[in-house]
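Quick review question:
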């Protein structure tokens, strides 16, 4: 099931029982009659909230936004937590240090990408895997036979504070405990307005930012929200649906699970081979990946006359050679951008091809490497603090 959040999805909606999925504990603070909800990892979230998405986008790039996101932490604990995670994830878990997040993939036995997310080591035998969309908790349980592990849902809702002023906001919200010394993907427990919460310097925008992980019923969610908004007000903090986040994540080269990559694509084909440790003795999918083609089939596409959308075809002459998985207008570049998934690997980067949109129109497009700008990731690491 793909999780598209393109402009046309804001009007293509159906009614659904609200009890089927988890509602946000923060909903009271940002609900409006204009809200369009999406479902991700079994949780509702605001795809659109009636806002001026372009104004929100520039606030994200120049100040900061707070996002109520549906990504779901799953806890894996017990004496066999490390060997178990080494089996189900492609990265070497035994080397992960406490207080550090690691991007990690889980593959099918055939080598396809089943899940991506960030793994945090909370203590020697206790980890949180913050999953993307999909039934990962069930997947973990299905593969846990023979391991002394416990797989549980900590009922943690996640907030993201993203943008160049996020460091000032979190510094104020933590009474100075979070500061410039906290490096990219570093994490730990901090007091935020009298509540001890897990915080990582990470996010889904490729802007400087932080993620805050609530502690189930132990967290007073509305008090946390009000505390962050109060401390963030002097620095321009605003709430936004994920519309601005989606634009920024594509600009930043961040892939969406089930949307841009799925079980039919290997990590190598998705350009994520660096997150596969083939030196590990065994993990699910290793045998298939040993034989897999190591070339990528997923690249970026830019177009000056149209915005690529899912369902758009990529043509080489009159022959379709790929399609768009997701696309958005890029306010920073002034171009339409999207992910181009090719049917076969080849020397596509740098080429000029034809984008055929669902309405049948054709447009010249260029195939590029991602991210679409900030290739060295200076923005997310805080090295580049210039405001566009």
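Suggested answer, residue by residue:
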């Amino acid at each position: 099931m793909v999780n598209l959040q393109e402009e046309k999805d804001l009007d293509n909606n159906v009614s659904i029982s609200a009890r089927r999925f988890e509602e946000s504990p923060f909903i009271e603070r940002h609900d409006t009659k204009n809200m369009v909800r999406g479902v991700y990892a079994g949780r509702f979230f605001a795809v659109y909230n009636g806002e001026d998405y372009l104004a929100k986008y520039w606030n994200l790039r120049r100040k900061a936004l707070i996002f109520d996101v549906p990504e779901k932490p799953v806890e894996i604990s017990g004496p066999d937590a490390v060997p178990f995670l080494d089996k189900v994830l492609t990265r070497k878990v035994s080397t992960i240090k406490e207080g550090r997040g690691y991007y990690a993939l889980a593959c099918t036995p055939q080598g396809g990408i089943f899940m991506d997310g960030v793994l945090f080591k909370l203590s020697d035998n206790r980890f949180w895997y913050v999953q993307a969309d999909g039934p990962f908790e069930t997947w973990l349980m299905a593969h846990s036979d023979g391991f002394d592990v416990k797989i549980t849902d900590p009922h943690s809702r996640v907030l993201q504070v993203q943008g160049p002023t996020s460091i000032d906001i979190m510094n104020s919200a933590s009474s100075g405990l979070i500061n410039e010394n906290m490096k990219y993907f570093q994490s730990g427990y901090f007091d935020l307005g009298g509540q001890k919460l897990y915080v990582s310097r990470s996010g889904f925008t490729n802007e400087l930012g932080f993620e805050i992980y609530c502690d189930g019923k132990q967290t007073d969610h509305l008090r946390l929200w009000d505390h962050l908004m109060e401390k963030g007000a002097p620095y321009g903090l605003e709430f936004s649906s994920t519309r601005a986040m989606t634009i920024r994540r594509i600009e930043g080269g961040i892939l969406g699970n089930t949307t841009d990559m799925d079980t039919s694509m290997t990590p190598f084909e998705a350009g994520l081979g660096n997150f596969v440790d083939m030196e590990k003795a065994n993990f699910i999918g290793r045998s298939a990946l040993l034989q897999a083609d190591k070339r990528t089939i997923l690249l970026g596409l830019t177009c000056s006359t149209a915005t690529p959308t899912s369902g758009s075809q990529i043509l080489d002459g009159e022959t379709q050679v790929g399609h768009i998985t997701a696309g958005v207008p890029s306010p920073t570049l002034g171009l339409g951008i999207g992910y181009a998934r090719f049917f076969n690997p080849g020397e596509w980067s740098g080429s000029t091809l034809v984008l055929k949109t669902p309405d049948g129109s054709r447009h010249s497009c260029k195939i590029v490497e991602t991210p679409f700008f900030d290739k060295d990731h200076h923005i997310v690491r805080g090295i580049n603090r210039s405001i566009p």
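Why it works: Residues 53 and 331 are 11 Å apart (CA to CA). The mean pLDDT is 95.
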